[in-house]
Amino acid sequence: ETGVTQTPRHLVMGMTNKKSLKCEQHLGHNAMYWYKQSAKKPLELMFVYNFKEQTENNSVPSRFSPECPNSSHLFLHLHTLQPEDSALYLCASSRGTTDTQYFGPGTRLTVL
Amino acid sequence: AQTVTQSQPEMSVQEAETVTLSCTYDTSESDYYLFWYKQPPSRQMILVIRQEAYKQQNATENRFSVNFQKAAKSFSLKISDSQLGDAAMYFCAYLSPYSGGGADGLTFGKGTHLIIQP
């Protein structure tokens, strides 16, 4: 599947910057997800949106703010991040929340 | 909460040989879904295979097959006729259909790095 795109692919930001990650799916899916992949750790679910409504927030710090304006687009707004937030951020979508999730290529984030 | 364990951080196999990657999970649920995903150096997470817990028949996709042992909570992936393009990180993942209000998303293991020797 190549139906999930993410921009930018790479991002370097300072701790005081504000930036946004964008995810778009072209699969007609209703659910979208943000995952964080850090070195030496399993992928961690951050946010789940189902029909544009947030259904899960796994105790993610408030410096990460998601936005889902429609079922095809998902954003992750970043502000005052910490160096430990450096990771690969993966977006995924699925038709329903028990259907197979398809992933985008990820955004490699480095926080200086 | 569910947990997924992949006990092999790294595996190596000769090209054209068969390799089996292990995965165990812990859950109190009777119905759920299991997945194997592949992540090559490009970092794109690619679905390899999906298994529904209520199905006794093991899922297969071309050279990829699983051995699903529900009672033992084991879900191994067998790759036959290994090819150089199979080199990647392989992740086992669990999905519950029961999470209130929607889903907890996928619970992943730490992954197994598969090396293909030419």
Helix content of chain A: under 10%
| Structural class assignment of chain B | mainly beta
- Overall form of chain A: globular
The biggest beta sheet of chain A is recorded as: 7 strands, mixed
Number of helices of chain B: 0
Radius of gyration of chain A: 13 Å
Query: How do the SSEs of chain A run, as a string of H and E?
Result: EEEEEEEEEEE
> Distance between termini of chain A?
33 Å
The beta-strand count of chain B equals 12
How would you portray this structure in words?
The complex is a heterodimer of chains A (112) and B (118). With 112 residues, chain A is mostly beta strands. Chain A is built from no helices and eleven strands. Chain A has strands spanning 4-7, 10-13, 18-25, 31-37, 44-50, 53-57, 64-70, 73-79, 87-94, 102-103, 107-111. In chain A, the strands form two sheets. In chain A, strands 2, 4, 5, 6, 9, 10 and 11 form a seven-stranded mixed beta sheet that branches. In chain A, strands 1-3-8-7 form a four-stranded antiparallel beta sheet, with no helix packed on it. In chain A, strand 7 and strand 8 form a beta hairpin. Chain A is globular. The mean pLDDT of chain A is 91. Chain B is an all-beta fold and 118 residues long. Helix content of chain B is 0%, strand content 49%. Chain B has no helices and twelve strands. Chain B has strands spanning 3-5, 10-14, 19-21, 24-26, 33-39, 46-52, 60-61, 64-69, 74-79, 88-95, 107-108, 112-117. In chain B, the strands form three sheets. In chain B, strands 2, 5, 6, 10, 11 and 12 form a six-stranded mixed beta sheet that branches. The termini of chain B are far apart. The model of chain B has no long low-confidence stretch (mean pLDDT 92). At the A-B interface, strand 4, strand 5, strand 9 and strand 10 of A face strand 5, strand 6 and strand 11 of B.
